[in-house]
Design brief:
Length: 283
């Protein structure tokens, strides 16, 4: 219950952030654009094939990429100062003077900030849903809700990463640098490093069939795991790295269902390290 008390207060404080409002508005605009793209794709498919497209899947496909970029940004902006900010201001000592343990504070921060990110995602996707009704006139509510749940889970993972990093340092500057350094690493360096390893092992970057280990390595980033999790829920392979590289029989680490395992690891490992570091820190 102590962690829930921290979460309630943290939710109220974080929800008033102007940065959050701006990012939520941007996310809502992207979902509205995604709804338009989904309707356009559906019309194009109908013209080419003589029948309607599955507009909900079109929307999921249109929203996966912007969500893959914007949700981590929202989660990191909301989470990176969760602990480090209070250590800098000195308010953390007051918080720990109440009947809260350090673990309660960290878990409460994660719950509170995850709820804020979830609200942001829900607002954005609600706009997309309205747009889909306006542009198309129909949508599978169940499928759309499933996609929303997976995206909220994705946001939760990045909140855990952000709060975990925030728990490791007493400086918001270092926490922000670490959080957004990971963004750069996941978005750019991960693929470049993977390609470098591929070249060293195989002697070429261009091949008819990429090795299983390479596809597995690419599938282990949280962003790729998000696509795998979506594929596992909908049974649509176009969201996975295996499909992107033309692998018909993906290895275990690239299987769609394994995306949930990867997301769990990315949530628990930074959180565990952060809890350990925060528990032994001299405040």
């Amino acid at each position: 219950m102590s962690a829930l008390a921290v979460a309630k207060k943290d939710f109220a404080d974080a929800a008033r952030s102007r940065k959050l409002m701006v990012l939520t508005a941007v996310f809502a605009l992207f979902t509205l654009g995604g709804a338009f793209l989904a309707s356009w794709a559906g019309d194009l498919f109908a013209e080419m094939e003589g029948e309607g497209a599955e507009t909900t899947m079109d929307l999921v496909f249109a929203l996966q990429t912007p969500a893959g970029y914007l949700v981590p940004i929202i989660a990191l902006v909301i989470g990176y100062a969760a602990i480090a900010g209070e250590r800098e201001s000195g308010s953390l000592k007051f918080l720990l003077g109440l009947p809260h343990t350090r673990r309660d504070v960290v878990i409460g921060k994660i719950l509170g900030r995850s709820a804020v990110v979830a609200v942001s995602i829900l607002v954005g996707f609600l706009v997309g849903l309205i747009g889909l009704f306006v542009f198309v006139g129909s949508v599978s509510i169940v499928d759309y809700l499933l996609f929303t749940v997976v995206t909220i889970l994705f946001g939760f993972v990045y909140v855990c990463i952000a709060v975990g990093l925030s728990s490791m340092t007493g400086s918001t500057t270092r926490a922000a640098a670490g959080a957004f350094g990971l963004i750069v690493f996941f978005w750019f360096l991960w693929s470049f490093i993977s390609m470098g390893i591929l070249y060293l092992v195989e002697g070429s970057l261009w091949m008819e069939e990429h090795p299983d280990w390479y596809v597995s390595l690419l599938s282990l980033s949280p962003d790729a795991a998000y696509g795998s999790a979506i594929a596992a829920v909908f049974g649509e392979g176009q969201f996975t790295m295996a499909t992107a590289y033309g692998v018909e029989n993906p290895p275990l680490l690239a299987e769609p269902w394994f995306g949930f395992v990867v997301l769990a690891v990315w949530a628990l490992v930074p959180l565990g390290i952060g809890l350990w570091q925060f528990g032994r820190a001299d405040l």
